[in-house]
# Entry
Amino acid sequence: MSDLPKTPPKALADATPILRVAGLSGRKPTRFRFVPGQPERREIAAALDLLDLTALSFVGEIRPVGRGDFRLEARLTAQAVQACSVTLAPVPARVDEDVLRVYLAAFKYPDADEIETPEDDTTEPLPEAIDLNLLASEALSLALPLYPRAAGAILGAQVFSPPGAEPLTDEVLKPFAGLAGLAQAMKKSPPDPQE
# Structure
């Protein structure tokens, strides 16, 4: 994807985030640049449960493939702030990812009850319109750390129990914990050989 232009032609620089498939060229690539303003970034941040989304850029092209299929290649860059999964402190994140989608006009979902999904599933049915805002938000949510951690944040063991009850810890729940306790008791008081 290194051949993608850094900045597309001026006519597409402020493209609407919705691209109608019927309006796409069947012969040459359609270049786009989606850089949402602050109000749109706030909406995306709220939808993704981010503390802030200070920058977002989604630049690429949609290229025709065959008679009615399309291939979208883009570069997503973003600067976001997530809440630490342990302390809730702000954790900055930088995203710089390639995004690929292949839209097939004749795409059909398999009929089987159990379907194995490949790890890199980039093929989708051809929609009537491609929503760049939705696509950028989806790619951003997949690229951000699932459990962000602030520097020095440590997730310690949490032990809960009702009043008066012994808390359940990992040591107590281990399958042979009872045998270890029995072995310790036998070491303290050896069996009487006359019994």
